[in-house]
Amino acid sequence: MICKIQSLGLTGINGYLVSVECFISNGLPGFEIVGLPDAAVKEARERVRAAIKSCGFSFPVSRITLNLAPAGTKKSGTLYDLPILIGILTASGDVRPTKEASAFLGELSLSGELRPVSGVLSMALCAAKTGIQTLYVPQANAAEATLAEGLKVIPVRDVGQLVAHLNGEAEIAPAPAWIPTRQQQTVLDFADVKGQADVKRALEVAAAGSHNILLIGPPGAGKSMLAKRLPSILPQISREEALEVTQIHSVAGLLAPEAPLVLERPFRSPHHTISAAGMAGGGSTLRPGEISLAHQGVLFLDELPEFRTDALEVLRQPLEDGVVTISRVSGTVEYPSQFMLVCAMNPCKCGWYGHPSGRCTCSPESIRRYQSRISGPLLDRIDIVVEVPAVEFDDLRAKRGGEPSSAVKKRVDAAREVQQKRFEGHTMPCNAQMGAAEVREYCQLDEPCAALMKQAFSSLNMTARSYDRILKVARTIADLDGAAEIMPHHLAEAIQYRSVDMGRN
Q1: For residues 249-259, average pLDDT
Q2: Are 35 and 83 in contact (CB under 8 A)?
Q3: 32 bridge partner residues
């Protein structure tokens, strides 16, 4: 007898339908799985066999052939355990065939209990789009699956419970739609930072337009402190953005059952020993890396020159395209990576180059070598470079804190609203994502601005990319100022953020 059970699979962060075809025939007992299964899928044979026997059913003493279609697509993971088991029990007559359009996924324990799997949200969204009416998932994945609207989600505890439900003996109630409940979180506030008004202004501009920023200053100046408070002034994540971010985190296996939806913009801060694969993604299962986990959020690289060169260079293409493409022998996947890059570094190896105390012990050649660890093409993709000076004693002693994040966020939100109206009907959400055509349309310069830009272009040895990035930053500054057109003082501030000496002369 041949039986077909619907399941799902993953390619990147997108789900696709998988048909589990089970054929039980006469002949020498055997259990074969075909359709490009990986090692985890092949091991399902033993988990399914043990689960069937543990739940009181008889495992067929026959030849069993299972085909995972489409057969030309690599199948990976443990999520096919449940559909394989249901296929065998249906083909052997222990389970009634399902009449409605249903799909199954889940990992089995040897006792027949269901364990959670990764990427359920992506597969649930695919199921809802392709006409699947009911999705059977492990209990721990049910809340995540309900985020896909228009889908009935059945939370399954174990095989015995599921079989009783399918045979009409004891119904399992569908999982209720998960409703987010915002919990009060401790948010780092800009008010905690003493002094550094110019740096805070630069971070405000960066947040308003989602621009990449580099902070340069001596140890203890507050670079990391400022960067970690950047999320407190970013716009609240939308539901569409939250779903996309959640898909990535779900595929990576980073979701908690009690928090199936990411409600805050990600803030990723990898250690400088990270590899290129850890940064971009990859591995045997092509998992997302840090730049994808930071999608719609912030990727913070502290001590930038200490990162491996290959780990930094993989940032170049995603910073331009907003996606990262990973190609391996096993296949090619594409992950979204629209993130805000925030970097921090010392001006030299000892960290005190340019400090008024004169305590720097580095030679000019050592300073040049240290700063040149950041390649020109990568530096060219950073919109704002700002110096973070050492904090003055009077600022540290000041009893009054700085401006709170809530006040800064209001200005950032107002600037983002202007950009949303400007780009209505476009795919870009903010100024940093403008293409060449949009730059020409929305970043026009009058004669005084053009003269200023011409002077800066020659004196700063700009490239065409840096020219466009200055215009984008100037557009953001004008939006913060509530100006319809870019004025000379807006442009001058934007140029200032590109004129920091990086010791490359």
Answers
A1: 89
A2: no
A3: 65
Q: What does the block give as tokens for 187? A: 């948010």
Instruction: State the pairing for strand pair 281-282/340-345.
Output: unpaired
Closest CA to 313 of 342, 291, 344, 338: 291
Torsion sign across C-alpha atoms 482, 488, 489, 491: positive
* CA atoms within 13 A of residue 254's CA, in its CB half-sphere: 17
Q: In what order do the strands lie in the sheet with 30-34?
A: 2-11, 14-25, 63-69, 30-34
The angle, 0 to 180 degrees and rounded to 10, between the axes of the packed helices 488-496 and 447-459 is 20
Report the C-alpha gap between 69 and 53 in whole angstroms.
Answer: 27
pLDDT tens-digit series, residues 339-381? 999 999 998 888 888 777 788 888 889 988 888 888 888 988 9
Quick one: CA torsion of 281, 286, 287, 292, rounded to 10 degrees? 40
Give the whole-angstrom CA distance, residue 347 versus residue 216.
6
For the chain, give the mean pLDDT.
90
How does residue 192 score in pLDDT terms, banded at 50, 70 and 90?
Answer: confident
The per-residue pLDDT for range 196-246, each reduced to its tens digit, is 889 999 999 999 999 999 999 988 888 999 999 999 999 999 999 999 999
The answer to whether 110 and 81 have CB atoms below 8 angstroms apart is no
Cα–Cα distance between 141 and 127 in angstroms, integer? 15
Helix runs in 171-303, H state only: 197-209, 223-228, 239-251, 276-280, 290-293
Count each helix (H run) and each strand (E run) in the chain, helices first: 21, 18
Look at residue 156 and give its three-state secondary structure: strand
What six digits make up the tokens of 326? 């990973």
8 Å CB contact between 89 and 57: yes
CA atoms within 13 A on the CB side of 13: 24
Determine the Cα–Cα distance for residues 452 and 447; give it in Å rounded to an integer.
9
At 344, the amino acid letter reads: A
Do residues 200 and 402 touch, judged by C-beta distance below 8 A?
Answer: yes
- Rg of the chain over Cα atoms, rounded to whole angstroms, equals 28
* Backbone torsion region of residue 100, taken as left when φ is above 0, otherwise alpha when ψ lies between -120 and 50, otherwise beta: beta
**What is the amino acid identity at position 448?**
P
Under 8 Å between Cβ of 196 and 391: yes
Which domains does the chain possess?
2-166 (3.30.230.10), 190-422 (3.40.50.300)
Lowest mean pLDDT among 181-195, 227-241, 358-372, 426-440: 181-195
3-state secondary structure of 299: strand
- Phi, psi for 68 (deg, rounded to 5): -100, 105
Q: Are 191 and 359 in contact (CB under 8 A)?
A: no
Closest CA to 224 of 91, 81, 346: 346
Model-wide pTM > 0.85: yes
